[in-house]
Amino acid sequence: MNLLNDQWLPICRKCGTREQIAPWQITDNIETDPVVKLNSPRPDFNGALVQFFIGLLQTAFAPKDDYEWMKYYETPPSTQILQDAFLQYEHAFNVDGGGPRFMQDYDLADGERKEIGALLIEEPGANTLRENKDHFIKRGKAEALGVGTAVTALLTLQLNAPSGGAGHRTSIRGGGPMTTLLVPDVLRNPQHNTLWHLAWLNVLPKKEFERLCGNPDKNDDESIFPWLGPTRTSDKKGRDTTSEDVHPLQVYWSMPRRIRLDFTEADNGTCSITGKKAFLLRHFTAKNYGINYSGPWRHPLSPYRFDTEGMSLPLHPQPDGLGYRHWLGLALGEKEGVVPASVVHHHCFKSGIRSRIKTQLWVFGYDMDNMKARGWHEAHMPLYHLENPYRDIFVDTVRDLLSATGLVADNLRGSLKNAWFKPKAKVRGDLSFIANSFWHNTEHDFYTLLDRLYSVVTQGEDETALCQSWFLVLHKASLGLFDIWVVSGSVEDGDPKRIALARRDLRKFNNKKTIRSALRLDIKIEEE
Fold it and tell me: Full-prediction pTM beyond 0.90?
């Protein structure tokens, strides 16, 4: 099987037809019945496959500048042009056979034999299985995978690899990185609702990409596709791999795990994940101390934060999910030293020709606790192109809106705690779900307000009325959620007076000067 020639990628066309295509067919029938999305049964697989497309285009079809990029955005290349471009890398995308294999160890002679389901990030580890602790995520869910599905699982693991015990290396962005992609705003530009436009939005001009990190002079195949040569092991006899050791493109083709799929027992049957008839794989061989990516790296699809020593650290989803509380940093890089993903920054702030294209932000990734997957998070967020003086006014206003929201959300949690429990009671358990529910319940209102704020600011109008409307949203939501949550407390500990006082204090807090000042308000909600 060859990933550039064979039809293995699950997609959905505009008409609703579901089929499998080869990568170069991404623009097939783009005028009449385009490929609109990937159609894997798992969201993490779709996230990995779209990065496969982006990485392939960046590798084999990178534009020389933004003008050439715009040409192909407005008039997508033919399937023949793409097939010819991809052909030069055909040798790097074989899945089976005796030679180099896609994202598999070059010459893995020995190692641990594992069931194919262990490629899935959420699968219980060996220690969990030995101690019979797989209570919530059971073993044996994926006993046999079709070759295409197994390759997708392998790709997903290499891109997101969490810590997996001694010598089992994490991905080039750490375990479970956050990915932020530009996607077409299809409500405003329905003709751009294609997989081509989505992938191409996240491709950078060649020189712009090569400036991010890596050594462009390392242009041999092994420096781009590490599986084409012996693995740079990281045991006592090996060494770490820095960005100066390899070509910049290896950020898309990184291979931290030493794995080789086992084709010796392959047979025909039903894939455990897709439920379709396929040529099945049941085992693979793995060994620790693969490539250890160390030092600063800048992956173009991830936002970063810089530590006190100036080291760039990729962001990772957290248990509280992905929502509008994170928007300012991910979209504009205006929160706690966050730098947006390079593709986002280039599109919105560096490329004048590209900035006029209306886009949104697609954010996704695993929330990992070391080697344990706690959850998969995914969100779509708006994007705006802003220039000064409008940018400063817009950012300052949004920062104040979010600050006030955080204060009300935290106070709601404290008010419910006071309503549920006696003073000085020792409260066990995590009450963060209360604040999370507040952020979630006000998200639609926030993005509606954000759109209106953009119009108001860019037209030079006053934003005070919008701040007043947001104040009312916060006040109403906090009281409404208090009334919903308070009845879920323990009946035997219930105290009507304590509940009434907690609700009264909640109203008073909402009218505090800190919140009203943040929202530049003179109005005050009358007490009941």
Answer: yes
